[in-house]
Write a structure and sequence with these properties.
Regulates arginine biosynthesis genes. It is found in: Cytoplasm. By secondary structure, this protein is of the alpha+beta class. The protein has helices spanning 9-22, 28-37, 44-53, 82-94, 114-124, 146-159; strands at residues 57-60, 66-69, 95-101, 104-109, 129-134, 138-143.
Length: 162
Amino acid sequence: MPNPVPNTRTARQAKIVELIEQQPVASQASLRSLLADVGINVTQATLSRDLEELRAYKEYNAQGVRVYKIPDAVELSFADAGAPGQFDRWAGELLTGAESALNQVVLRTIPGAAQLLASAIDRAVIGGVLGCIAGDDTVLVITDSEQRATRLCDDLLSRVGR
């Protein structure tokens, strides 16, 4: 039996990103079925909202089938609304530095702002980000690979002009 997924919007959206990254998903009906297989029952309306918030789009895969893709939050523009847009804004305003080490990124913020940035990262549902832990002015972000950590770190530093 699969690991239970918490019944939250953030957990559901993280699972959607994971499923779409793991296999081709051509329709909302097939995505709903995949979610049900892991214990997440969702209405079509909720799934539509989730896909919109995640900025999901369809493109042709190598087999010529249109499948869902989710852009990384680091690929989204500052003009985007919602959680990814909020992440962009907070990253630009609160971040003072970032360093990657293996599959981890240590983010430095202005004093007292780490929780806010960590929450924005969690809500943005960034592909490859497994989670984060925040202190007062430091956020530890755990990613699924060294490459993802390096890319996230570089993108964040470019947003603060470093």
